[in-house]
Amino acid sequence: MKMTKTLLGLLVAITLYGCASQEPQGPQYDLSLYDGRPIDTLTSDVMPVSEKEAITRGDVALRNNNNDLALYEYIRALSFPDAQYQDKTLYNIGRIHESRGNIALAEKAYTMAVEYNPDNVKALEQLGAIYSKQGRVDEGKSYFLRALNADQVRLKNSKTLAGGLIMVQDINQLKVDKASPAMAYMGLGVLSDVDSQHKLAEAYYLKALEIKPNSMKGMMNLGYSYYMSGQYDKAERYTLAALEKDPNNQKGQNNLALIYLGKNEVKKAINIFMRSMGAPEALNNVGYFLILQGKPDKAIPYLQQAIDKKPSYYKLANENLERALAMVREEQEKAQSEVSTTMVKP
Hints:
It comes from Vibrio vulnificus. By secondary structure, the protein is an all-alpha fold. It has 17 helices and no strands.
């Protein structure tokens, strides 16, 4: 009898364990991409029944600035075995993290998006921007080019850009529309300017402006590129066009002043600087940038004027003046040395 009771007890325990083990388990979410408030505080809604429902919930939360809930819903969307939009969902996750300054998680999400869809233009573009800002220039350029090439696939254009030698005509053959990656074109323009490939930079910027004709940043970058290549009239035209959209933009005003200095229109440059600073600071700026432009002799009188206007305060102008005088002396000594060498020749 005791044995029978023991067997019955075991059978009951086994039955109960079996029932418990067969209860439906909640879905397992990969929360490695989540970084927000505790999940149990986010929502009391029932679980979404499909990927599309989860994405819709995420979109609604995002529009309502509830980024934690949006993240959670997008992550839930990834958990469905029949999911079809993982790359787009991961791009959204990356954008949320990037907006919060969480670059590591943003990079992870964008990278996963590209793994699901190697032609996800937006994710490729964002990775290019992240790596370029981190100083990983080669990687940044590679992802920008991949974004451009993926966009050509979308636009059914057989012309693409290889990673090797790129010519202006190669860029001109690319197709663009309003959905094309303007930031990737802009980024490649900046990287080209850094390499002193101003013709390439111009071609990239013009494509970016073809996509976004009213882009102040595009106009300003193109204007500065023209300035660096010595095309001052074009530089002035595009910089003025940019400033029409944002007259108080400090960077645009500084660029315009530099252009006027390049054109030897010093009074115009001083007037531009004096819109945002006092006379001593403006005169010092003019002297400093003339030094950078290789014109130390022209810089000296403006630096002296800056010191005269604020002698007790303007340490920076004194340092710049000493630098300009040293450069002038060096040039004079070099010239005298060359003359002496010429005179002693038989």
